[in-house]
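Tokens for chain A. Residues wanted.
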């Protein structure tokens, strides 16, 4: 999969840009606000990319940051939200809700998994341990989400607690 493209702006379409990367022109679909932030043709640009594969098409969606791309991925897990709608939501939230940029999508996803009893047992146990130590639920969930990303899916509860405490001490 393509995760990032760095090249020169070749041309613009209504909802896409052609990004020339080493002589290959990639058509990258972007929200209007992302397109407005890009330079004129001939200028250098870097886009975080989400590759969307369907039976009849392969589309690249471009974002100004990896953070925006992660929100795009998370939003598509909601029933009825496809790539175009997720792209518009990310674009609108970025400009209309400045605090959105500070929220880690992994924490939101983890919180949803905990609420629906889908989170792995070591994760829920580690969050409970941090809450019992006096940390708030949101802080504990954020710390364990970061610890879980670092440790991987096979992490034990004790390891997650140690890494979570290190996160909280930063």
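Reply:
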């Amino acid at each position: 999969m393509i995760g990032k493209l760095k090249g020169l702006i070749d041309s613009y379409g209504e909802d896409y840009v052609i990004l020339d990367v080493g002589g290959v022109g990639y058509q990258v679909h972007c929200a209007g606000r992302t397109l407005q932030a890009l330079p004129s043709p001939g200028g250098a640009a870097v886009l975080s990319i989400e590759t969307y594969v369907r039976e009849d098409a392969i589309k690249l969606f471009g974002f100004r940051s990896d953070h925006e791309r992660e929100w795009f991925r998370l939003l598509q897990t909601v029933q009825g939200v496809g790539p175009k709608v997720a792209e518009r939501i990310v674009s609108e939230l970025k400009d209309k809700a400045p605090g959105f940029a500070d929220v880690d999508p992994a924490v939101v996803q983890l919180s949803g998994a905990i609420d629906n009893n889908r989170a792995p047992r070591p994760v829920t146990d580690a969050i409970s341990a941090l809450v019992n130590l006096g940390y708030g639920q949101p802080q504990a969930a954020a710390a364990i989400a970061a610890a879980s990303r670092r440790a991987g899916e096979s992490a034990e509860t004790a390891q997650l607690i140690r890494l979570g405490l290190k996160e909280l001490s930063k």
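The mean pLDDT is 80. The chain has two domains: 4-100, 104-168.
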